[in-house]
Design brief:
The protein has 28 helices and 41 strands. The chain folds into 5 domains: about 180 residues, Quinone Oxidoreductase, Chain A, domain 1 (Alpha-Beta Complex), CATH 3.90.180; about 140 residues, NAD(P)-binding Rossmann-like Domain (Rossmann fold), CATH 3.40.50.720; about 160 residues, Medium-chain alcohol dehydrogenases, catalytic domain (Quinone Oxidoreductase, Chain A, domain 1, Alpha-Beta Complex); about 140 residues, 3-Layer(aba) Sandwich (Rossmann fold), CATH 3.40.50.720; about 90 residues, no CATH class. Helix 3 crosses helix 4, helix 15 crosses helix 16 and helix 15 crosses helix 21. The relative contact order is 0.07. The strands form 11 sheets. It has a 12-stranded mixed sheet. Strands 3, 4, 5, 8, 9, 17 and 18 form a 7-stranded mixed sheet that branches. By secondary structure, it is of the alpha/beta class.
């Protein structure tokens, strides 16, 4: 191997550790292959991703890390098999530089969704096994497939941001058909991505509203970018005026922010696209489900759509607004970007500012490369001399215990390569133009710090070590140019003159090392101990200066009367009522723009509070649904909520495609219906559950194809990227990211449960262009369609029929998932007893005591209070059983009834039972306290 083959031929700026500070770096690019293009980089855009991975925000950064994936340049060499490009062509490279080129996505030129994963332009693993390094460099070598032709005449500096910021918004806008003139678009955030979304939106003929937290951006948005509306999101009146007015929203904000307020701005079936990278996505399920809204993610785009976008921009004269900077300014630019202090994209002028002179290794040193602390020879470049700086040749450097501590990373914050040494003595060899205190030849020293703010009271008092913003330490600190400071185990150093100390004439330089003598008390404490010891005791010594709601909305019954204008139903028809009983009946949507009137707890047309199906009868508008002839009413009831809640989104997201794969989270009332519909649609159905006890039922009874315990990591791993759809029916709180990883590219996750919050990492949505959608029941058309489908395909929910007297226990059991799979109240049978009972209280007719006592048994826990009415009812029971006996209600205590449940004879032969336990006293009265054995 010759030295030529491994020469460091590429100049760059790189981050060496999670500080994210970039400094000059040299490395070698891979050898040009037959299908490769080598391009001289002229410009590179600065993206939020550069900041994220430089600082290891996702925990997967590989150092040294050269960022940059918005690359524009000029072809300087091509491989022997390259046919699409020639030397001199203007080309671009975006977020990825390779992929498998074999899978269905790659063949469709949607390489970002490559089944094996695209190789990202930086921080990926290249085809030769090396770590991919990005566009903050002098040149790059990539396969020709991943080069984009920049149209003739289009400025290279303007083209660079299009290769991430541009395509990141253009791709989902095209995928979700936002190029429909007259539609309305909201853009959250007006940064690099946001301003491009506005430009594309206007080019597509959309009505664009910018949603921002900063009033300072209003003029720019309206006058410069041409937005139609500008809304300050903290202004509740402005936000209220936008309610349900937008067809689409693109969220470009990467800072953490609430999602629910924005979801409320979407029309029914509106689409919310997330392209930013907040730390989490969290919203209330109602924001998604009510209105059948969709939240989708996207990250850049494939080669086909990227080239299409470049051509579209050139044809329509769309240019991003940029601020061109030299590479030496990149650390400050990254900090400004995080503060949104840029309009609207930084672009580094690589060609002009990155040259061999700027990265020459002119300083000799010894450095530690890792926590072993072993020092070895090292070369690096010092920062350029500033007008207030002093450059000194180091003659001597003291060895301090701190050198050991940081060389071996004892405090966990060492930045390698690390050049120790902060007891420095030497001779001035050069001074900046404004330096007045030192001249060439002076003997000077540098101690433990080399910079500070020079503005706070401590700095003004020349107590810089106590600088309120923190002193910059001589080694392992962050210097003013963003590089890692390197200490005195080196040939020379450059520092601001303030932090140089004049060594008196004649004083030996070797004796002048500056560390221990410079230690100061922060109000009279100096800790010189190197052994382990507590710090808190010392630190503490320092200064510092009700409405009752009647529920039920899965209602099935028989028409007993119709209004004079009703034409769709007649007396005797079997009908159902679902989750709502009225709406405006004027708007175009399934989910009424004015709001449907819910079956219970809503405000009815007459102003009364709607009351639901735990009742004997109900009155509704005829618009609602017919139950097919022969379909059991008990089975029809759950379809009107549980059934339609899963059927509606399944149809909306085209899950009725035989051969596709469906995952169902939760196997309750909704979940088991999702399985049944899935099988009827010809899907391969996998049940995802936390309970192994449901496996046999899922596979053998419901016919699922697969059953996975979600806590089993191996089972979950085997499902990775295997599902086309997931329906989440679980209402308990649970993580979402593990399930999102099971979806294929462009997979759809539908939430129909109601956990307390929805929270997932943006990467779960963005990588793979996955979609999260919500749904809650459905319109009358799709509900009737579902009922007919169930009847035609003999789909029946699994139910447990109960009397209404059991409903409280049933509700408790339902919360505990102790039902297969839906309770249905037999309203007709069990309410007849109640009606009969109430009539009996005021009547004087005879009745069968066995029936009444069985009814009393059903009351169960309801008979525990001691109201006068309940005592009267019990007294009437007893008087009817023994009509010749005088009953004194006040003598009866209903708490006694609770004991009676223990005796089977009580509800099998109640009359005989009352005689056997001798409850009749000597005066011929029933005395429930007579038998002490009870």
């Amino acid at each position: 191997m010759s030295s030529e083959s491994v020469k460091d031929d590429c100049l760059a700026w790189a981050a060496r550790d999670p500080s994210g500070v970039l400094s000059p770096y040299k490395f070698n690019r891979r050898v040009l292959g037959k299908d490769d293009v080598s391009l001289k980089i002229t410009h590179c855009g600065v993206c939020y991703a550069d900041y994220v991975w430089s600082k290891n925000k996702h925990g997967d950064s590989r150092y040294p890390l050269v960022p940059g994936h918005e690359i524009a340049g000029i072809v300087k060499e091509v491989g022997s098999s390259v046919s699409n490009f020639k030397v001199g062509d203007h080309v671009g490279v975006g977020t990825y530089g390779n992929s498998c080129r074999e899978c269905v996505h790659c063949n469709d030129r949607n390489e970002i969704s490559c089944e094996k994963g695209p190789i990202f332009t930086f921080n990926g693993i290249g085809s030769d096994g090396s770590i991919a390094k990005g566009g903050y460099s002098s040149h790059i070598v990539v396969h020709e497939t991943y080069c984009f032709r920049i149209p003739d005449g289009y400025p290279l500096a303007s083209a660079a941001p299009l290769l991430c910021a541009g395509i990141t918004v253009y791709n989902p806008m095209m995928r979700h058909k936002m190029n429909q003139p007259g539609k309305s678009l909201g853009v959250i955030g007006l940064g690099g991505l946001g301003h491009m979304a506005v430009k594309f939106g206007k080019a597509f003929g959309l009505k664009v509203t910018v949603l921002s937290t900063s009033i300072s951006k209003e003029e720019e948005a309206l006058c410069a970018l041409g937005a139609d509306n500008f809304v300050i999101t903290s202004d509740q009146e402005q936000m209220k005026a936008l309610h349900k007015s937008l067809d689409f929203i693109i969220d470009t904000a990467s800072g953490d922010h609430p999602f629910d307020p924005y979801m409320s701005l979407l029309k029914t079936a509106g689409v919310f696209v997330l392209v930013g990278l907040p730390s989490e996505v969290k919203f209330h399920p109602a924001s998604l489900n009510i209105g059948m809204k969709t939240i989708s993610g996207s990250v850049t785009g494939g080669t086909r759509v990227t080239q299409e976008m470049l051509d579209f921009c050139a044809a329509n004269k769309i240019y991003p607004k940029i601020e061109v900077i030299p590479i030496q300014y990149v650390n400050e630019a990254l900090e400004r970007m995080i503060k949104n202090d840029v309009k609207y994209r930084f672009v580094i002028d690589i060609e002009s500012s990155l040259n061999s002179e700027s990265v020459k290794d002119d300083c000799l040193a010894w450095a530690a490369r890792d926590p072993s602390g072993v020092l070895s020879p090292y070369k690096f470049s010092r920062r350029a001399l500033g007008k207030d700086d002093v450059s000194l040749k180091i003659t001597h450097c003291g060895v301090c215990y701190a050198d050991v501590i940081w060389s071996k990373n004892k405090h966990g914050d060492s930045r390698y390569p690390l050049v120790p040494g902060h007891e420095i003595a030497g001779i001035v060899k050069e001074v900046g133009s404004c330096v007045s205190n030192f001249k060439v030849g002076d003997h000077v020293g540098v101690g433990t710090y080399v910079n500070s703010c020079r503005e706070c009271e401590h700095c003004n008092d020349r107590d810089e070590i106590s600088c309120e913003k923190g002193a910059i330490f001589t080694f392992n600190g962050i210097d003013t140019d963003g590089s890692i400071t390197k200490g005195g185990y080196s040939s020379h150093i450059v520092v601001h003159e303030t932090y140089c100390f004049r060594i008196p004439d004649g004083y030996p330089l070797a004796s002048a090392a500056l560390c221990s003598a410079l230690h100061k008390s922060l109000d009279f404490i100096i800790d010189t101990a190197s052994g382990d010891h507590p710090f808190d005791p010392y630190m503490s010594l320092l200064k510092t200066a009700g409405v009752f709601v009647l529920v039920g909305h899965e209602i099935a019954g028989i028409v007993k009367e119709v209004g004079s204008c009703v034409s769709n139903f007649k007396v005797g028809d079997h009908v159902g009522v679902g989750t709502y009983v009225n709406s405006c009946r004027e708007c175009e949507h399934l989910q009424c723009e004015k709001g449907a009137i819910f079956t219970f707890n809503g405000i009815d047309t007459d102003g009364s509070i709607t009351k639901g199906g735990y009742s004997s009868h109900i009155v509704v508008h005829e618009t609602y649904v017919r139950i097919p002839d022969g379909y059991p009413l008990a089975s029809a009831a759950p379809l009107l909520c549980a059934g339609i809640t899963v059927y509606n989104p399944m149809m909306r997201h085209k899950m009725n495609q035989p051969g596709k794969s469906l995952g169902v989270i939760g196997l309750g009332g909704l979940g088991h219906m999702a399985v049944k519909f899935g099988k009827a649609f010809g899907l391969k159905v996998t049940v995802l559950s936390t309970s192994i006890s449901k496996k046999e039922e899922a596979l053998c009874v419901l016919g699922a194809d697969n059953f996975v315990i979600t806590s089993d990591q191996e089972q979950m791993k085997a499902l990775h990227k295997s599902l086309d759809f997931i329906i989440d029916t679980a209402s308990g709180d649970h993580p979402f990211d593990p399930y999102m990883s099971l979806l294929k590219t462009a997979g759809v996750f539908v939430l129909v449960g109601f956990p307390s919050e929805v929270k997932f990492h943006p990467a779960s949505l963005i990588f793979g262009m996955k979609t999260v959608s919500g749904s809650v029941t459905g319109g009358t058309r799709v509900t009737q369609e579902m009922l007919d489908f169930c009847a035609a395909n003999k789909i029946y929910p699994k139910i447990e029929v109960i009397p209404i007297q059991y409903v409280n226990e049933a509700l408790e059991r339902m919360i505990k998932n102790d039902v297969k799979y839906r309770f249905v109240i037999d309203i007709e049978s069990s309410l007849k007893l109640l009606d009969f009972m109430i009539n009996t209280v005021s009547g004087n007719h005879r009745f069968d005591p066995d029936i009444l006592l069985v009814f009393l048994f059903f009351l169960g826990s309801q008979v525990k209070s001691e109201t006068a009415l309940q005592k009267l009812i019990l007294a009437i029971f007893c008087s009817r059983i023994h009509p010749k006996i005088e009953v004194t209600p006040i003598q009866n205590d209903l708490s006694m009834v609770n004991h009676l449940w223990k005796f089977p004879m009580f509800y099998h032969q109640p009359s005989l039972f009352l005689h056997q336990i001798d409850l009749v006293n000597k005066n011929g009265q029933i005395d429930l306290f007579r038998n002490d054995n009870l």
